[in-house]
Automatic annotation (TrEMBL):
Entries under InterPro entries matching the protein: HTH_MarR-typ, MarR/SlyA-like, WH-like_DNA-bd_sf, WH_DNA-bd_sf
Residues covered by the HTH marR-type domain: 21-154
An example Gene Ontology molecular-function term: DNA-binding transcription factor activity
Gene3D superfamilies the record matches: Winged helix-like DNA-binding domain superfamily/Winged helix DNA-binding domain (1.10.10.10)
One Pfam family, short name: MarR_2
Protein name, UniProt field: MarR family transcriptional regulator
UniProt-listed GO biological process terms: response to stress
Species classification: Bacteria, Pseudomonadati, Pseudomonadota, Alphaproteobacteria, Acetobacterales
Length: 171
């Protein structure tokens, strides 16, 4: 029989990290999954799009035209995932392809008129969710959360850069 989940509470000190459930990165990952799950269910039910498709529509709605490479980078998807999602959106008439403005081999992606209509509804739903999340935070904690996200993002990038540099030779 497995142990019951721990009740949420303050993060343990690093020396007190006994299991994966105590790791800050794991707890943030679980939060991100919960946020994504709720969004995915709502966007699928109300608009018939997956979370991946929603991200692509939202990015194209705000920043089109985008190439597939730019769209993959901005959405955090690998190029193959982004390509499959874009193909499905093109087939449904929500996204249009056009020759790139600087390189004829590249394809510029943008929303169709129907895609823009769906994207507007998706953004309305996203703003409603955002307002609910912000309202759930006690006064003054949003600024602290924003700063914590900024600091953790910078540290995560710093650590990733160290790994990208490869192992160091012993001195």
């Amino acid at each position: 029989m497995s142990a019951p989940p721990k009740a949420p509470g303050p993060a343990p000190e690093p020396a007190a990290v006994a299991t994966i459930r105590d790791l800050l990165s794991y707890r943030i990952h679980r939060l991100a999954n919960a946020l994504s799950r709720g969004a995915a269910l709502r966007y699928r039910q109300e608009f018939g799009v997956s979370l991946m498709e929603w991200r692509i529509l939202a990015l194209l709605g705000g920043f089109a035209p985008l190439t597939l490479r730019d769209l993959a980078r901005e959405s955090g998807l690998d190029k193959a995932q982004a390509s499959r999602a874009v193909k499905a959106l093109v087939e449904r008439g929500l996204v249009e392809r056009a020759p790139g403005s600087t390189d004829a081999r590249e394809v510029a992606l943008r929303l169709s008129a129907e895609g823009a209509r769906v994207q507007e509804g998706l953004m309305r739903a996203a703003r409603e969710r955002e307002a609910a999340f912000r309202a759930a935070l006690p006064e003054g904690s949003l600024a602290m959360l924003e700063e914590a996200i900024r600091l953790l993002t910078a540290e995560a990038r710093r650590q990733a850069a160290l790994v990208d540099q490869g192992p160091r030779e012993p001195g």
